[in-house]
Amino acid sequence: MSVNRMCVAPPPTEPSCAGEPYVARRQFIRYFYFIHYGILLRLVCHWYICETATCVILAITADTGRTAVTDDGWHRPLVHIRGRDLGADTAQTGGMTRFEAISGKTAGSENIWMGQTHVAPRTSSGDHHHGHVETAIYVLSGRPVFVFAEGDKEVHLRCEPGDYIFVPPHVPHREENPGDEEAVVVLARNSQEAVVVNLESLRSRQDPQSPA
């Protein structure tokens, strides 16, 4: 005798809410780790940029005159050097006095040196050149005369306040002040240190790498 069996599916039931708290908790954990790793990634990138860039800067603050340090390469401090604080601790030539303002030592500069030279009345500096460095000169006061050799003769460039002079690399020259007023000029060079090679005459030849 054969028996026909029928498989009857169970009646549909209402969806259970027992798993919803678990699902919500998993979503919360996912969002938490997403935010956490996003912040961590930003911190790692910031550290990498600061480690691979030149970020530590030494500077003299204007208010206290002390050395300030920063590790932020995008917000390096400006350096204020007051005129009354210029020092003469730099390469010198007889007959004039150089004062250092902006340099690697005073401001952390890498490609520029700035300062002043003062020549007393009726005085002439010694002959010299500045090696491989270019020099730009601005006449601040007095009427200095810049002298260089051209063939067998000497050329005199007579200046007044507001004039500019450009001195190419390795060119021997001197500064004269025939007047009764001190001559003061502002200097700028494409070096972070004062390069000075003192000479016996405008026609002397000397290794531009020799010390001042």
pLDDT under 50 segments (min length 5)? Answer: 53-64, 207-212
First-residue to last-residue Cα separation: 125 Å
Please give the radius of gyration in angstroms. Answer: 36 Å
Number of H/I helices: 2
Strand content: 25-35%
SS class: alpha+beta
For CATH, the homologous superfamily of one domain is named as: Jelly Rolls
Do you know the CATH architecture of one domain? Sandwich
Overall pLDDT confidence: 81
At CATH level 3, the topology of one domain is Jelly Rolls
**What order do the helices and strands follow?**
HEEEHEEEEEEEEEE
Description:
By secondary structure, this protein is of the alpha+beta class. The chain has a domain at 86-198: Jelly Rolls. It is built from 2 helices and 13 strands. The chain has helices spanning 20-52, 104-107, and strands spanning 57-60, 67-70, 97-102, 113-119, 123-124, 128-129, 135-141, 145-150, 153-158, 164-167, 173-177, 183-189, 197-198. The strands form 4 sheets. Strands 3-4-12-7-10 form a 5-stranded antiparallel β-sheet. Strands 5-11-8-9 form a 4-stranded antiparallel β-sheet, with no helix packed on it. A two-stranded antiparallel sheet has the order 1-2. The longest helix has 33 residues, at 20-52. The chain starts with 19 loop residues before the first helix and ends in a 14-residue tail after the last strand. The model is unreliable at 53-64 and 207-212 (pLDDT under 50).
